[in-house]
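Study this chain:
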Amino acid sequence: MIEIKDLSKSFKSQNGDFEALKNINITIKDGEIFGIIGMSGAGKSTLVRCINMLERPTNGSVIIDGIDVGSLSSKELRQTRRNVTMIFQGFNLLMQRNVLKNVCFPLELAGVPRNEAEKRALELLETVGLTEKASAYPAQLSGGQQQRVAIARALATDPKVLLCDEATSALDPKTTRSILALIKDINKKLGITVVIITHAMSVIEEICDRVAIIDGGKIAEIGAVSDIFSSPESRAARNLVYPEENSYIENTDNNRMLRLVFGGEYSADIPLIARLAMEKGIAANIIMASTKTINGNAVGSMLLSFRNDSDLIGAREYFGSIDKIVCEVLKNV
């Protein structure tokens, strides 16, 4: 388990201290895939670097399996980093070494005999689907292949935690999906705790169990991904979950709007808007609609507008009576 308690981080600048993180409190369970998301400059990368003490917190603590990582000696911290490994946006491979030697590198640092290290490295290359690239050099690989090598290298020391700092940001959508599928498979097979740092909500949707939304160095919201998507409470969460809808809402004079969030069975099988019209005589204008897949389950959302207050109130009452539908009035009533 990873416990982040009252963590703050400040940096010196010409204009005085800049507080990048402010009183962060997060508990990450063993074996889960936990997401940390925020816009650029929100503090998410600083936070993940504080977990393995690449950045030392100004205040607060990081406790991993009951051990305060900040209290460790340099030698003890090096050992901990074998159990808490990291992959990056830029892959950080050694360009002068071939793929096999890149994966062997952390094992060499740990003093593992060469034959044993190479055997372990080949096993990991098989895990990430790159056995045939063992003799190739990073420059000969695609971005997705380089990230697979970086994942294999991160797994070399049998870590308990894998930190992923914008690990798919440099990849195209198809390659991103394949890397996320690989990480999910590794999590399932090896039971490794995964912490995903990203600015893309699509990554959170695809892979994470729970998510913390960071905004201006503070935790704006934290919870199960399905809960955040169905009913985001903070402004930061709404902007990430419904970016187009929120942009429309903020720039329109339309003041009779309602958002529905519902499970896939409703979007596929039940004509909600037609039923509203037939059963209640209420006409709704569909401004926007979308469907997302979260942990394998389809979740749909609609942004609706109405002609008058009476229709808006009636629609809210009607949809509010249907199980598994979250109904939220966005303006007016």
Summary: The two ends are 44 Å apart (CA to CA). The mean pLDDT is 88. The first helix runs from residue 44 to 51. The longest strand covers residues 16-28.
